[in-house]
Backbone:
């Protein structure tokens, strides 16, 4: 497989072999269940769909209940499709098969972590974009501490350009962090320790991709 679904447990730090204190994130990766296998003949591309986390049947739509029963598993909270899985897994993925962290990753691998960042609500330009506030006293502001200043010209273009950095809703968006090294794999507990930080709060879903 090219990845797995997991849940962020929290952050800690460990000492490397050369004595450096390395910040890292503990992720509960799997066990996931193969809920669908796609191929070129029927779907036009190769992909495998994984399900993770238990979900009450009364809160699951009936079409999804049938989808999970076809795979011989209980309803899952999170379902993710991984496209174009590697050739060495061809024929090893079957409907209803359980995929564990130790089967996909080994220590030293580099992975990309995808999660939903923490929502911070409506924020101003200083917190949202790192503006300096009134310190520079330029661009049309001098007595308003955290205001954005001038946002456009006068008669031309007579409008504000798209993409202007302004105040607005911050966080709660899909974020992908690249090239995190796997420091430890605990296959008996389905835990993975990766270097650096992973987007999202504790107990949020995380997608790990090779």
Residues:
């Amino acid at each position: 497989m090219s990845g797995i679904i997991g849940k962020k447990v929290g952050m800690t730090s460990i000492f490397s072999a050369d004595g450096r204190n390395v910040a890292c994130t503990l992720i509960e990766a799997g066990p996931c269940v193969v809920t669908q296998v796609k191929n070129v003949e029927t779907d036009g591309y190769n992909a495998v769909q994984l399900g993770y986390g238990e979900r009450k049947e009364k809160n699951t739509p009936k079409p999804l209940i049938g989808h999970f029963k076809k795979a011989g598993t209980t309803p899952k909270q999170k379902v993710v499709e991984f496209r174009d899985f590697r050739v060495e897994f061809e024929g090893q993925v079957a409907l209803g098969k359980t995929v564990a962290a130790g089967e996909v990753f080994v220590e030293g691998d580099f992975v990309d972590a995808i999660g939903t960042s923490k929502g911070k609500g409506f924020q101003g330009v200083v917190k949202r974009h790192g503006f300096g506030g009134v310190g520079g006293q330029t661009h049309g502001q001098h007595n308003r501490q955290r205001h954005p200043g001038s946002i456009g010209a006068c008669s031309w273009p007579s409008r504000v350009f798209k993409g202007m950095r302004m105040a607005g809703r911050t966080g709660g968006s899909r974020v992908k962090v690249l090239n995190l090294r796997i420091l430890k794999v605990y296959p008996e507990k389905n835990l993975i320790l990766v270097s650096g930080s992973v987007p999202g709060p504790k107990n949020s879903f995380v997608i790990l991709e090779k």
